[in-house]
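Quick start: what a row looks like.
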Amino acid sequence: MTLTFHQIHNDDLPTVLSLFKEAAEKIAKMKIDHWQYWKNPPADKIKWVKDGINNNEYFFIKNTNHATIGMVRILNEDILYWGQQQASALYVHSLTVKEEYNGQGIGKLILDTIEHQAKMKQCEYLRLDADSKNPRLCNYYESLGFKKVGEKTLTISTYNLYQKEIL
């Protein structure tokens, strides 16, 4: 399957929030307390999304039929979660895949595509985080070769920090 990344714009905010809500509902069905604030997001989370959109960090992911199958936020730095870093990296946030596309290897394909982008930018790492209350997601990232290198505690939760060396 070929995936394409399409820049998200301010007028796409309702779709972005809908994708977050769908993801929260999917996670809740698995009895995992993660991302539940996206069902009715607080103002600071909406601002976080708007800031990312204004910084051209959010992308819809579309398949070969041009259907939106998910979204992702890609950053060149992530001060909030990672602090100032010396090594060059791309940072992944807000990776969502619509439920009807689960089990098709799309998450891995998305991360492989971003890893390729990082390699083209001569980054040393691909970095992301996962809520420590979501062991299934943490195990998934580890199965894709990401190594846990730390933790970050924020108001909402504690997050495991993962990185994958770009070879």
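That is the whole record. The first helix runs from residue 13 to 29. The CA atoms of residues 27 and 109 lie 20 Å apart.
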